[in-house]
Amino acid sequence: MTYRLAGKGRPLVLLHGWATHGGFFAPQFADLAASFQVLAPDLPGHGATPVPHPTVRHQADALRALLNALDLRGAMLVGWSMGAMVAWRALLDGAGERVTGLVVVDMSPRLCNDTGWPWGLRGAVQARGPQAARLLATDWAVFAPRIARRIFAAGSLHTDLRRWVEGEVARCDAEAMAALWLDLLAQDFRADLGRLDLPTLILRGGLSQLYPAGTADWLATALPQARQVTFAASGHAPHLEEPQRFNEIITGFAAGLPP
Questions:
Q1: What whole-number distance in Å separates Cα of residue 180 and Cα of residue 53?
Q2: Interior CA angle at 131 toward 56 and 164, to 5°?
Q3: Strands 99-105 and 226-231
Q4: Model pTM?
Q5: Which of 25, 91, 117, 156 could tie 152 with a disulfide, CB 3.0–4.6 Å?
Q6: 3-state class (DSSP) for residue 49
Q7: Is the Cβ–Cβ distance between 79 and 103 less than 8 Å?
């Protein structure tokens, strides 16, 4: 698995979202490598780690293997969007012995909504999954700009950054993204999150176009040691939209973790 690594100190492992890559954490590398050993992999199926049919479990297994190979200890995992599911899966499967803290950035434990679950991805319904996957596989060039725009707050002024994101999303392998999309829709961590008894920070984009405010509230209740922070000027990607505040909050949270 291709990864970026810089700095010294507590390992800070940055896990990107669907259809992106580790380079989306450039503002964190620029500022946090002075205080942390910053690690940002390209999860399987993304960036420079091509895989034809990636899954969340495959990505989590690759993450655990990387933590072991680099012998990282006392790490803090930051999971943005899909990266949060990868972090949850890795922790549930045994990565906890190397991890002391968790940060979840604008994500739900289950994407699909139904009559008893309104806190998933806006508009996501299980029955529409196969049709959506087919459209992604055949018309990725059409969907890539839409995906990129929804990452940011509506009316965002980050024009140059959004154009860069559109280009990077467009480079993804369409069939791999379609396969992974179906796997993401099948995930459900609601019953398992209570087992993740480690300090946890829930970061919510106050202007997120993807998840309602209640999603973060639910997570803060379900995770035993969780608290939440809202980024009032951000959508789905506060680490890009408010990077200075994001980095300050990450640094402050890390200061309170066990050595």
A1: 7
A2: 60
A3: unpaired
A4: 0.97
A5: 156
A6: strand
A7: yes
Contacts for 209 with CB less than 8 Å, ≥ 6 apart = 122, 150, 152, 153, 154, 235, 236
DSSP labels for 98-164? GEEEEEEES--S----BTTB--SSTT--GGGHHHHHHHHHH-HHHHHHHHHHHHSPTT-S-HHHHHH
Query: How many residues are there in the chain?
Result: 259
* Consecutive H or E run containing 175: helix 174-186
DSSP state of 46: B
User: Helices 82-92 & 56-69, crossing angle to 10 degrees?
Assistant: 70
Q: Along the 259 residues of the chain, how does pLDDT read in single tens digits? A: 999 999 999 999 999 999 999 999 999 999 999 999 999 999 999 999 999 999 999 999 999 999 999 999 999 999 999 999 999 999 999 999 999 999 999 999 999 999 999 999 998 777 678 888 899 999 999 999 999 999 999 988 889 999 999 999 999 999 999 999 999 999 999 999 999 999 999 999 999 999 999 999 999 999 999 999 999 999 999 999 999 999 999 999 999 998 8
Return the exposure string of 75-102: e unless at least 16 CB atoms fall within 10 Å of the residue's CB, then b.
bbbbbbbbbbbbbbbbbeeebeebbbbb
Place of tokens 């999309």: 181
Residue 204 contacts residue 228 (beta carbons within 8 Å) = yes
**C-alpha to C-alpha distance for 61 and 41, rounded to whole angstroms:** 13
What are 105's two structure tokens?
């950035």
Residue 178: other Cβ atoms inside 10 A: 20
